[in-house]
Amino acid sequence: MGHPPTGPSPSPSPPQTRFDETFCALLPRLYRRAVMLAGTRSWAEDAVHEAYLKLAARPQRFLDHPEPYAYAFTALLSVVRDTHRRERRQVLVDDLEVSGATDAAGQAGRLGSIGPVVAAGWDGGVERRDAEMEAVRLLGRLSSKQAGVVILVDLDGYTIDQAARIMRVHRGTAARHRTRALEKLRSLLDGSESERSDGPGKEPGHEA
């Protein structure tokens, strides 16, 4: 009895196709991290695009890396840091853009309790969006290296050693960046709590 005919074995996807598929799978996560690093949605989009171009120049390195996300985050952090150097400014929460549906008067979005809330932004409820916008506001007060190590360790769950390797710095340097970042974040949070507690209180000149 003869063997059944077999068709040609499927050829593996070319590197560029596999690169695009892998990068696209990471895109939502990278974009959220880019917003936290860059501070504005439009700048985050530019940063992710530039990171894509950098990685696409050598797709096999990205594909061969044991942790593609970590490799892509390194490229993203490099883009943001270079942009900070070029523009010589730190993006603050005042630069956050309110995007989404506009009303007849041309006003975009709406304001939440802690700042702009994007009408058609990330999935989830208003509370989650408020929390993410607060994180953007706070991380925007840090340097790109400080924000990078906080994102890797405190949001992505990497150890200090892993974060140092991803950021290509010594472990002690990464630890110092994180310590200073957390100290500054605590100071900012303490200041916010103080302002909220003083805000709706007594009028000036009226003592109990």
From TrEMBL:
PANTHER family: RNA POLYMERASE ECF-TYPE SIGMA FACTO, RNA POLYMERASE SIGMA FACTOR HI_1459-RELATED
Keywords of this entry: DNA-binding, Sigma factor, Transcription, Transcription regulation
Family the UniProt entry places it in: Belongs to the sigma-70 factor family. ECF subfamily.
Top-level taxon: Bacteria
Annotated signal peptide: none
Family matches, as SUPFAM superfamilies: Sigma2 domain of RNA polymerase sigma factors, Sigma3 and sigma4 domains of RNA polymerase sigma factors
A GO MF term: sigma factor activity
Location of region: Disordered: 187-208
Entry-linked Pfam families: Sigma70_r2, Sigma70_r4_2
Protein name, per record: RNA polymerase sigma factor
Coiled coil feature spans: none
Domain RNA polymerase sigma-70 region span(s) in chain numbering: 26-89
UniProt GO BP: DNA-templated transcription initiation
Domain RNA polymerase sigma factor 70 region 4 type span(s) in chain numbering: 134-185
Keyword Transferase carried by entry: no
